Amino acid sequence: MSNQQEIPARTVYIVSDGTGITAEALARSVLSQFNLSYARIHIPFVDNIEKARSAKRQIQEEYNRTGLLPIVFSTLVIPELVSVLREARALHLDVIQTFVEPLRMELGIAPKQEIGLSHQNMESTEYKNRIEAINFTLAHDDGQSNKELEEADIILVGVSRSGKTPTSLYLAMQYGLKVANYPLIPEDFERGRLPSALERHKNKLFGLTIQPERLSEVRHERRPNSRYASLENCRYEVSEAEGMMNLEKIRYLSSTSKSIEEIATAILSDMRAFSGPAQEKPPV
Amino acid sequence: MSNQQEIPARTVYIVSDGTGITAEALARSVLSQFNLSYARIHIPFVDNIEKARSAKRQIQEEYNRTGLLPIVFSTLVIPELVSVLREARALHLDVIQTFVEPLRMELGIAPKQEIGLSHQNMESTEYKNRIEAINFTLAHDDGQSNKELEEADIILVGVSRSGKTPTSLYLAMQYGLKVANYPLIPEDFERGRLPSALERHKNKLFGLTIQPERLSEVRHERRPNSRYASLENCRYEVSEAEGMMNLEKIRYLSSTSKSIEEIATAILSDMRAFSGPAQEKPPV
């Protein structure tokens, strides 16, 4: 099966007193370093002894059934729940406890051991800002509205299908930023100028570009065999858009081989580098 | 300042060979357990020796300046880069390495030590599915379209402002799920039936409800002093919507005190519980 060694499949449990989203992301990163096939079982909201016992039983049964140690990534902040879970025979990777202990030593203060402290509920200001950012971003997708652009934190520009919409939504969702996005279209290239609504907001503009070959593939999936998707047209649009961004001194990056998260992170790094060690909005 | 002990502020560094999003989420969770004020500095894309040296210098200078150990959460998979970073005087919390070692021991296989393995680029199938899911979800927000509902993975229903839109987008973005959402409106209550487009898709429906008091607050922010936002009307709509969901046997949960992530996780747990230990789409 594997091209290195044949390793029996393992069961990986993600056990959390919250959503388990952080534990899940970490488990994926760590496990991607091994050539291992595994099934993943997600047990969220383990916030009392009874649920911890139920998780423990489930894990123990898996061990009994297979004779292989299940792999358990857990984010539990209450030591009693950790103790219960640890009664199951498994490889226990305590994502929170592992780092709380050295911090306790270094800081000389006791951890709070309370569930849900990193959690934002619907009444917090950060949460409201985030919902407002999502609504703003939806209302300003694809140049839909020129209103309230002064409220935007970032305005993305680029040719159609260069990745503006998912990047905008990710920035709104993850960082609570209000992100408008505007397509650069053939009419703009003919006039040789940015859409006029954007002229006053040049300091907020950030561009996305993309390899013409890749753009053509993406557009063919949408509109097969159209002029819009043709490689010739994609080359023309990308070249014009890059020329315009260079002329207008708009910073830009290529989305070609990047994930949404990488594009978003690169934009934020770049904008911070240009605005100095700025007030960074925390991720939410 | 603090209501327990006064602790000097620390600088927390997030150093990653990728976006650092996982390290950042983990750092927030762990640090929320301490009554600590801190500044956070994000150093992403540290994927070669030179960048690792630059990060090391920056951290060392912070120590030299303050005499306090900076706190470093790092996700670096290449041991040489870890070694360079560790030359800085700091409290080093190696998020990946800490868990790779016990896994190596248990599995008896060597880690790959390659950057970007958990990363999806624009050419991967998962990535394409995710972008398609985001586009589908945008096109099916707020009952905009009845087309292609058979392609939907989930259809959320609930009164206006119960949290359907951000939850739908989160599920699409994070899990690559195609999520449509439909408002339940007074016309539906008068007819006493679900919107007709949804009848055929009852197995995909999931409801959101909300406390009328909270709904009224949220609606007042949008349309102050409107009948739409009045507590009386909110009570009527919520009561009718819950009645309809009970009658139609649609599972639902209250979004009142939950974050988007918690709502999304709870929906997925519930749907999995009802569909058995199903093919779980991996998070992306």
Automatic annotation (TrEMBL), chains A, B:
<dbReference type="GO" id="GO:0016776">
    <property type="term" value="F:phosphotransferase activity, phosphate group as acceptor"/>
</dbReference>
<feature type="binding site">
    <location>
        <begin position="158"/>
        <end position="165"/>
    </location>
    <ligand>
        <name>ADP</name>
    </ligand>
</feature>
<keyword id="KW-0418">Kinase</keyword>
<dbReference type="InterPro" id="IPR026530">
    <property type="entry name" value="PSRP"/>
</dbReference>
<keyword id="KW-0723">Serine/threonine-protein kinase</keyword>
<keyword id="KW-0808">Transferase</keyword>
<protein>
    <recommendedName>
        <fullName>Putative phosphoenolpyruvate synthase regulatory protein</fullName>
        <ecNumber>2.7.11.33</ecNumber>
        <ecNumber>2.7.4.28</ecNumber>
    </recommendedName>
</protein>
<comment type="function">
    <text>Bifunctional serine/threonine kinase and phosphorylase involved in the regulation of the phosphoenolpyruvate synthase (PEPS) by catalyzing its phosphorylation/dephosphorylation.</text>
</comment>
<dbReference type="InterPro" id="IPR005177">
    <property type="entry name" value="Kinase-pyrophosphorylase"/>
</dbReference>
<dbReference type="GO" id="GO:0005524">
    <property type="term" value="F:ATP binding"/>
</dbReference>
<dbReference type="Pfam" id="PF03618">
    <property type="entry name" value="Kinase-PPPase"/>
</dbReference>
<comment type="similarity">
    <text>Belongs to the pyruvate, phosphate/water dikinase regulatory protein family. PSRP subfamily.</text>
</comment>
<dbReference type="GO" id="GO:0004674">
    <property type="term" value="F:protein serine/threonine kinase activity"/>
</dbReference>
<dbReference type="GO" id="GO:0043531">
    <property type="term" value="F:ADP binding"/>
</dbReference>
<keyword id="KW-0547">Nucleotide-binding</keyword>
